[in-house]
Amino acid sequence: MQAPGGTKQDEEHLRLLALFHFVLAGLEAVLGLMPLMHVAMGIAMLTGYWPGLPRGTTPMPDFMGWMFTIMGVVFILFYELLALLTLLGGLSIRKRRRYMFCLVVAGIGCLNMPLGTVLGVFTFLVLLRPSVKALFEEQARYAA
């Protein structure tokens, strides 16, 4: 069924954008867990358990352990938040809601090179069409 404000092509582009947002969110969520090994290494450095060394012997200064741990946690939190925003952006595009939020998510996604940048640019190209904006406004009128 075609909405009054857009064309079939707009509908198809929005459907594909939502799908690609879901795929990218899944990739970001999985790849965002890679720094877990850095967190584990940092904890191993801090506790003194390092394979091949006698227990209690610290091969490196404590600040190295803290650096690995804190930076790993920060990267994990950043990527998981990025995955959540990308997922919410895809859901918003699919439901034709929160137009400005979708634009902000597209801009933030551009920081995630190369896939996020490509998806962000295509999202801008589609969402900035007047006919697509009319679809979002039409949906907002139905919701109110």
Describe this entry's structure for a reader.
The protein is built from six helices and no strands. It has one domain. The longest helix is centred in the middle third of the chain and has 34 residues, at 62-95. By secondary structure, it is an all-alpha fold. The mean pLDDT is 88.
Low-pLDDT windows of residues: none
Order of helices and strands: HHHHHH
**Largest pleated sheet:** none
User: Beta-sheet strand percentage?
Assistant: under 5%
* Overall structural domain count: 1
Overall average residue pLDDT? 88
Shape call: rod-shaped
SS-derived structural category: mainly alpha
Distinct helical segment count: 6
Number of β-strand runs: 0
First-residue to last-residue Cα separation: 21 Å
Helix content: over 70%
Radius of gyration: 21 Å
List keywords for this structure.
144 residues, mainly alpha, 6 helices, 75% helix, rod-shaped
TL;DR?
The chain is 75% helix and 0% strand. Helix 1 runs antiparallel to helix 5 and helix 2 runs antiparallel to helix 3. It has one domain (10-143).
Question: Which SSEs are present, and which pair or pack?
Answer:
Layout lengths: L7 H24 L4 H12 L14 H34 L3 H11 L5 H13 L2 H14 L1
